[in-house]
Amino acid sequence: MSTTQTLNNLIENGNRYANSLTEYSRRKTITVNVGDVPMGSHYPIRVQSMTTIDTLDTIGSVEQTIRMVESGCEYVRITAPSVKEAQNLDNIRKELRVRGYSVPLVADIHFTPNAAELAARLVEKVRINPGNYADKKRFETIDYTEIGYQVELDRIRDKFLPLVNICKEYGTAMRIGTNHGSLSDRILSRYGDTPLGMVESALEFLRICEDENYFNIVLSMKASNTQVMVEAYRLLCKKLNEEGLKAYPLHLGVTEAGEGEDGRIKSAVGIGTLLEDGLGDTVRVSLTEDPEFEAPVAKALIDRYSNRKEKSTIIPNFIQHSQLITHNSFDSPINPFQYFRRSTHEVANFGGHNVPRVIADYSQIEVSEHEDLKTIGHFYLPLPDKWTMNDLGADYIYTAKNPAKYMLPMGLKEILDASVWAEQSDKVNKFPLFNIEAYQANTEKHETLNFLSISLTDLTEELIQTIKTDKRLVLVVETSNEHAMPALRRLFFELINQEITTPAVILRKYENLPESDFQLFSATDCGGLLIDGFGDGILLKLPDLSEKAELIAKSKSYNSTAFGILQAARTRMSKTEYISCPSCGRTLFDLQETTALIRKRTEHLKGVKIGIMGCIVNGPGEMADADYGYVGVGKDKIALYRGQNVVKKSVHADNAVNELIEIIKEDGVWFEPANI
Ligand code: SF4
């Protein structure tokens, strides 16, 4: 084999999951026909969501569907837990047509092949969950022989074939939608609770479809854990390539993302990271809110790429494969299918094993009153005359040319532009930020911590050598490239290639963006890097504004967004995590009201994960990651979980939150909220 062939093989069989890591290039897929709204190939990335009304409530479902369509949904999914609901999809569809709405409907199926087979004759698409289509959960670990495993696959084929044949006959599309939380015992026994298990779960069903020449299929790999979710989608693309299966369109989603700011940030971290690499043909954002609030979020995420230039100015990757050196747009020095944090040495409290730090931008704000720091989590208490901070207390403020007018609290440190820092009387408790020129000049440096602002093109041989030898340095990495996440990722690749272990803070600045887009875009850009293990801190710069009051107000949301991104990427837990389902026709209690109540009582329990699930059918599986669970088991009846174990089987809803808190107290995890 020639050198070129070997090299091509390394690239082809390596970690390829997208067309390019340095140019925006949407993954080419086959077209899937869903009613008269096709998906994939050259069609726009579609928006979809799911109703929350009881499917047997025809008019309620129709009216909610219409509200969803008006808010931007191009497909609407409706749960069909049994044949009764599947049958009623026909009435819903007919009433929608009477009212002039031709939106394709998708039947959501769990456990009930007979409901799927009926729905496939009535609506444009069915979604099946490969974890429970042919399997009931028994939480057993089974040691399969090859023959035993094949017998299982044959059993699945027998159960699944009728649906495939109906879909073929009626031109119905299908989503094979894996959920991390509901993998079958068979998959868990063989592959564990892993992205590979998620991918195999779908492929077992997909191979049957291909054998039958049925290709009208969309795939999804949803999880509440954004790292797992991103890894599973990437691995799916790689496996489809490797096995010579067709390039099926991808439905992107983060399950149980939650509500409000947290839900939006978490969705953007998971979905946005994949969209950046050109993956994804339809998006569903799952929020614990009315479904008409989901489509605008999905649309904002998608629209960011409608004018993204295919060609970019990012330098192709430089990789050395033993004797071979290649410059190409795909290869990377990291494993994109498994989370590893980039290895860095510790500088002050950056890098090493430290959590990523939050730096608040006060470059336009004069820090003259104690109140000025309240919005970034630092509170001055006049009576005891001391400072305190909450869980979202920023670690540093960047004051640029405006040194703070008073001594900052212990937990907050100040970064100044190097020229201003040099003039300070107290140079020990403040830290300088250098540009390259000042850094390379023989100027005074701090004894323990200095910051250097760089972008990819700054990395000359001379600078690389200086950075490598300076153990008091933290980099602040930035880019002006519109394709910002890949541009910064490329910089991190270069740091790895050059064996630079200096910690690096991600800096992003957005001008003229509505607050909602700022949240989504910063979560995509920073979250995508954090998911790949890059970033030892975040600095979100405020837009240029003239009024101090406006800037202070913004600093609150920017600080909260920065902490939210770190939490959503699972790199720093600073809040209670709520894994709450978006609700659907199966929901047994008012999810929004209950989530708000649980949040109010428990939001001071930093790092504790609480699952709030509307039904017992999917709930326990979907909240597999949670420390405690609140799950609907009947009308106003709640089961309470500690991890995966039921602690109370049926508590009346009126008292269930109190009982949940009692369980948390029994574990010694509870403490009373601070009064600040
Ligand atoms: S967990 Fe929530 S969204 Fe999932 S099926 Fe149950 S009620 Fe519906």
From TrEMBL:
- For this UniProt entry, which segments traverse the membrane? none
As its record notes, the protein acts as a catalyst of: (2E)-4-hydroxy-3-methylbut-2-enyl diphosphate + oxidized [flavodoxin] + H2O + 2 H(+) = 2-C-methyl-D-erythritol 2,4-cyclic diphosphate + reduced [flavodoxin]
> In which pathway is this protein known to take part?
Isoprenoid biosynthesis; isopentenyl diphosphate biosynthesis via DXP pathway; isopentenyl diphosphate from 1-deoxy-D-xylulose 5-phosphate: step 5/6
Q: Which GO terms describe its molecular function?
A: 4-hydroxy-3-methylbut-2-en-1-yl diphosphate synthase activity (ferredoxin)
The residues that hold [4Fe-4S] cluster are C581, C584, C615, E622
The cofactors it requires, by name, are:
[4Fe-4S] cluster
Any binding details for the cofactor?
Binds 1 [4Fe-4S] cluster.
- Residues forming the IspG TIM-barrel domain are 29-298
Q: Which residues form the IspG C-terminal domain?
A: 577-665
One of this protein's Pfam families, by short name?
GcpE_C
- Which UniProt keywords are given for this protein, alphabetically ordered? 4Fe-4S, Iron, Iron-sulfur, Isoprene biosynthesis, Metal-binding, Oxidoreductase
Name the EC number(s): 1.17.7.3
**InterPro entries from the entry?**
Dihydropteroate_synth-like_sf, IspG_atypical, IspG_bac-typ, IspG_C, IspG_TIM, NO2/SO3_Rdtase_4Fe4S_sf
Q: Which family does it belong to?
A: Belongs to the IspG family.
Q: What is this protein for, i.e. what is its function?
A: Converts 2C-methyl-D-erythritol 2,4-cyclodiphosphate (ME-2,4cPP) into 1-hydroxy-2-methyl-2-(E)-butenyl 4-diphosphate.
Q: What is this protein called?
A: 4-hydroxy-3-methylbut-2-en-1-yl diphosphate synthase (flavodoxin)
Q: Which organism is it from?
A: Arcicella gelida
